[in-house]
User: Fold this.
Amino acid sequence: MTAPILWIVVPAIMGMILYAFRRWYRISVIAGTVIALGLAVLARFTPIGVQVDLGPVSFKLADTLMVLGRRFVLTENDRPLLVIIFLLAAFWFGAAYIARAGRSTVPLGLVVVALLTAALAVEPFLYAALLVEFTVLVCIPILVQPDLELTEIQSLPFRGSLRFLTFQTLGMLFLLLTGWVLTGVETTPGPDIAIRAASLMGFGFAFLLAVFPFHTWIVMLAEEAQPYAGAFVFLIFSWMVFLYGLRFLDRYLWLRDSETLLLFLRLVGVIMILVGGGSALFERHLGRMLGYAVLLDTGYNLLSVTLPEGIPLLFAALLPRATTLGVWALALSLLQARSHGLGFSQVKGLGYGQPLVSTALLLAQLSMAGMPLLAFFPVRLMFWQQMSGQALWVVWFSLLGVAGLFVAAARTLIVLTSQEEDSTIKFQETPQSVFLLGAALSGIVVLGLFPQWFLPAMIKGLQAFENLGP
Amino acid sequence: MIIATLNFPEISLPALIILSLSGMMLLIGRDGRWLTLALGFQYVGVFLLVFLSWTLSLAMVKLVAGWMAAILLGVSLVGAPSNTFLEERFSPSGRVFRLLAAFLVGLTMLSLAPRISGWYLGVGIEVIDGSLFLIGLGMLQLGLSTRPVRVILGLLTVLGGFEVLYAALENSILVAGMLALLNLGLAMVGAYLVAVPQIEADK
Assistant:
């Protein structure tokens, strides 16, 4: 038994088996959650490359799996990252049934997580671009499910999913070429070839990360797909791409030391924050608002990479991001089940019938904007503090972006509490959704009040990178 | 591009002609069967150009995977009921426009090829020509339509063009296998998107 088999092959096979049994919706969700949790626990307590004695039984998890001349390697340093990835998956799968995310979400979500792990483990890591593309192909049935109740907007012919597929495929092609050019940089270094490699890499990640102007797929998907399923793709996929990008920084010193790259990332990050916050400000569809918020957060993540101690910040932001996006997506899913649409005209006054769901939605929006005492506040504050010492102009523009999100949250509040004929408050939420929303909201507040309990554990994921650690 | 500059013109010239004709057919064709046939022929052209860089057995992987992808798409198209979601109707002038656009794209790519071949030393001009032509036609297909089948055909065309170039740069068996799987995966996604409205209608 090797570590790659345990954390790549096993979840992929279990995901495919669960896909065959997806007709039993609740059972497949529970099974998927338990599998993800189990793998997270195994990652926490099972050493890799070390002999383990359990009474009469002893075993050793090898760290390498050879496939057609290439290696998949998961070492002892990768264990914290594995715990994070599988805990994240378990957290997301747990609410999939309540959120009505579709029968394919959990089974294919397991396969997506397996592919994510494979992309981290493959050597040489440049082949991860192909694994990213396979992940995209698996995400399409998550985003387009025949058993989901389609709203009028969602019945349009899958524009968002097709745009997502197109841009990711084009990004993959650029990154595959980058791999070949980088080999040339190593053998015959020179400024021309380095510029060519950096340009190809820039285009590749621009497509993959939905950097402006290649961002339209996020917003279209947020409008078109089931919110919980769509948010899962946004979260896992962007995290996967960021980890892939960090491997480039970890491997190539000339990239880490490049002032041009630093300036470029700052410019791009600021543009994404402004586009995300500014567009959310004027948006009249709650799903699209989520999409713009994702763009804003991606911009913050890009800016974090440019800080001297920004990469631990990137890892620290994952837990608030997962919690906030999860609550936001769950609230949208529950709202959509009542309103059959997420446009302002369709959700008008729903706050009276679903006060807890509406509260969750608003708190998630405010958390993403960095409101004090909520999950994202500690991370945003650390970012602003560090960035103010490096480039104050970035701080001002980033504050402008979150101001847009604040106003968007205020507009959402106004719409949800618009006067209707019957404006008495009635709790129409189911007991299960009340429990889940209550737990998630508590999580958002606890993360905001006591970040020191959780964030150091997230930063341990950096151990997987030799040269980027704190 | 002068014919005399091509290496192995008995392979590369027919390949370029096949790619041109099949690419244009994919742009203007409407019937699922003709599109499948054109895609199949396109992969013959891809195979011939890849064969200039790889061994026959490895190049055959491209051809077989491509034909499987074409058959997958073709079967799903033939089996799908006629509806406006899948079909794209354009007038005869629309076809003329597409052909002219393809001609312009082809000219542009052929003019760019000598400069780009300077970036990839050791790669023949015919490989660069074929690769750029396919990528250009694929991008044109992607830009002209939002129908699922057209988008998948466009992506397969772009991918085919990329594979022609990449084959001259990298000869790893794992990459060849993964790219072949990718072709199949794209075709499966296309077949799935064709089938989804039918599944919803049957509910």
